[in-house]
Amino acid sequence: MGKIKILSEDLVSLISAGEVIENPSSIVKELIENSLDAGTDMIDISIEEGGIDKIVVSDNGTGISRDDCEVCLQRHSTSKISKKEDINAISTYGFRGEALASIATVADVRITTQTNEEDVGTLIISRVGESPKISDSSRPIGTTIEVTELFKKVPVRRKHLASPKVEGQRIHEVVMKHAVIRTDVGFRLTRDEKVVIDCPPTQSAIDRITYLWGSDVAKGLVEVYYSEAGVWIEGFTAMPPVSRGNRSREYFAVLKRPITDEHLSQAVESAYSTLLMKGQYPVFALDIAMNLTDVDVNIHPTKREVKIIDIEKVSSIVSMAVRDALGVERQPIESQSLEEFLDENILSREDPGISSRLVQTDHIGTLPAVEHTILEPFMGISDAVKPVNLLGGLFRIVGQIHKLYILLEDEEGLLVIDQHAAHERVLYDELRKGINEDRVAIQEMLEPFVLSLNPTEVERILDHSDILNEIGFSIESFGGNEISISTVPEIFGKVASEIELISLLDSIGTIGISDARDSFMDELVKLTACHSAYREGQTLNIDEIRDLIEDLSRTRIKYTCCHGRPSIVRIKKENLDKAVGRLGHDAIQRFKKRHRLK
Ligand code: ADP
Ligand code: MG
């Protein structure tokens, strides 16, 4: 006998339902979309235990007629399309007629509904594996769908659900994403009897986003309003320094359907270009409208996202829309790294000298002290600018250039110090020392800072709250997807910027989960140092420069930041001389020519 069997229809539906219904948040997404399709202007969602125990979604939409109630739980039952051509012009969220059927194969479903054409409403009670029972009921016009006993017949799937907290936060995100875009509809979300989102219908877009993202973020938002070649882009994007450490506040919708798309994300990120530092991500909510024929809604069932057909074109329009809103030039700015510049212009490759050794991390420790003669007082420099000690020599502080580099001069040439990298090194050493000696200096916040993050981030942060505490951050759950921070390490407190704090906490998500405690801690210390350090763009006064150089001179490894990037580059005067033709072969040739020597 062969091994291959034809699966029963029940089993087939169970398998594919499992694909569509991954977790409670995918149920909430489907139910919200059905309510929106029914023309509601108020959706009330309430969940228990992250939706694992119970999900209830109520709306004041059209309701479902008795006849339709007979079939709405069957597969491929939909009121939204009837012929093939309809698929190309779909304007509703759903059309496959699969969602309710899929939910009913993995959970118990109870629907009460009332249309305005019928006097009596309908109650459907559907239990997994049994045929649904239909009876009379009454309620105001609209529909309430209650989902319980999720995955009771598929324990494996139930076991694979995340914690109620995380599942609840995923639902929170789903509701937020719809609520940001559909400002014409009210949304209320209640988690375990606590109302966590409550937006009235017909709120202005900016009021809605301020309510959902908080006024600190909203203050930085600029409006995006742009159209080109049949593509319309509308929404908001945040001016730096408002940013996040990950993509959790990159909201896209196509024709008001929330989607995620790598191309589009990159397009917006590239529009920000150098406005954001590496590791920082923009904050925005953009709705992209285009002709229905330019999108494909009929894609893979599990994705259930629309797909833009000409994504290259739309991405570049999105990028222009954001540049336009930010006031960024369209021309890319040409940049050349300092190392390339030095390589090409100053350092001779045959003679590596001290200059290139300083930028090479593998020479740390064996680096020779800069040879030095006693410094003569510099011309025109007042006594106020005392020379500083670094690398075993004395240097005059020339100053800061480009609000990023500190220039020091000695007789042999210049030292160029990256203020961020150098400060990061200093703070890293200081914090590590504090941790080793168990006396990290902390600073209390005037009042606890409350921040809402996405589900996985919250879990990650709370899971590591003991390590964070050792470093100086006291963090507690504030309920839902919010955390509260009551102390920060003192080195961080000096920066005291909420933006840096948000960005730091976001970045915790980028540390590998599997990292052992020690390396996780080290990564956190690095992140903290990085977020506490002077930034490019910060003007430093002479005292700050002096303090920084003195602190730097006491660190063990001065030549790189804690991420291994060079922090000091040496430019020898000799190489400058060569570069301008004062020294070397060219100069000798010119000298000979001038003096008619052979
Ligand atoms: P689809 O949305 O793809 O049509 P669903 O399984 O999600 O399929 O829903 C099946 C049908 O049930 C819908 O086409 C619609 O007619 C009806 N329906 C579901 N939810 C609602 C609701 N909240 N209000 C009115 N009708 C609804
Ligand atoms: Mg649907």
Report on this model:
This protein has about 600 residues and is α+β, with helices and mostly antiparallel strands. It has four domains: about 10-195, 2-Layer Sandwich (Heat Shock Protein 90), CATH 3.30.565.10; about 205-325, Ribosomal Protein S5, domain 2, CATH 3.30.230.10; about 340-420 and about 540-580, formyl-coa transferase, domain 3, CATH 3.30.1540.20; about 440-530, 2-Layer Sandwich (Ribosomal Protein S8, Chain: A, domain 1), CATH 3.30.1370.100. Helices cover about 35% and strands about 25% of the residues. The protein has 21 helices and 23 strands. A hairpin with a 2-residue loop joins β7 (about 185-190) and β8 (about 195-200). Mean pLDDT is about 80; it is low at about 330-380. The structure holds adenosine-5'-diphosphate (ADP) and magnesium ion (MG). The site of magnesium ion has 5 residues, from α2.
CATH architecture descriptor text of the largest domain: 2-Layer Sandwich
* CATH superfamily label of the largest domain: Histidine kinase-like ATPase, C-terminal domain
Number of strands: 23
Taking the alpha carbons of the first and last residues, their distance comes to: 101 Å
| CATH C-level label of the largest domain | Alpha Beta
Q: Which molecules are bound besides the chains?
A: adenosine-5'-diphosphate, magnesium ion
Q: What's the helix count? A: 21
Mean pLDDT: 81
The general outline is elongated
Main sheet record? 8 strands, mixed
